[in-house]
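Field guide to reading this record: the first block holds the primary sequence, the second block holds the structure written as discrete tokens, and the final block holds curator observations. Each block starts with its own label. This record concerns TetR/AcrR family transcriptional regulator, catalogued under organism Actinomycetospora chlora.

BLOCK 1 — SEQUENCE
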Amino acid sequence: MTAPTPTRRGAARHSELFDALVALLLAEGFAHLTLDDVAGRLRCSKRTLYALAGSKEQLVRAAVVHFFERATTHVEAAVAAEREPTRRLEAYLRAVAAELAPASPRFMDDLAAFPPAADVYARNTRAAAGRVGELIAEGVAAGAFRDDVPTAFAAEVITSTMVAVQQRRVAGATGLGDAEAYDALATLLLHGLTRDLTSPASPASPPA
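BLOCK 2 — STRUCTURE
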């Protein structure tokens, strides 16, 4: 087996540090943390952090970019594992919820209040909305989704909801975290509000 080159080792260490940084920020937020705090928690030097980014602000933005790039990879892997259009759309939304689940309310509030990072989230939300539109169109073409609701309208409704989640308006109005909101969106989109009367949990019909 060929030994890793210094470049590979450096890239691996770079990725490990970003993973650790992302985990820290997701759990605790970042507005209150100094570079000294971050270096101490990650058990590295400030010089190491400066090798990743030139300032705390740049470091936070880079960590948020890393988070969404990693999340996108995981979400697309979940979609690729499914073949049926309905399950692919559900897999997408549930996977987005799973990726956002570790994010604490403090992190999401800090993210919304820090424009460089909020812009990264907004761009990823727009990309996600576009991907959902593609999955809906795929389902309509395959006959898995009803075609009496225009695809563009469905995509616009979903996009508006996703943007409202990203802008913290859903959290403010409902108390739901972003991950919970995406999970609820998946349920509403695929199952609506109608109770499944065939479910064992449903009340039994009265005798005739």
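BLOCK 3 — OBSERVATIONS
Residues 24 and 41 are 8 Å apart (CA to CA).
The domain at 57-191 is CATH 1.10.357.10 (Tetracycline Repressor; domain 2).
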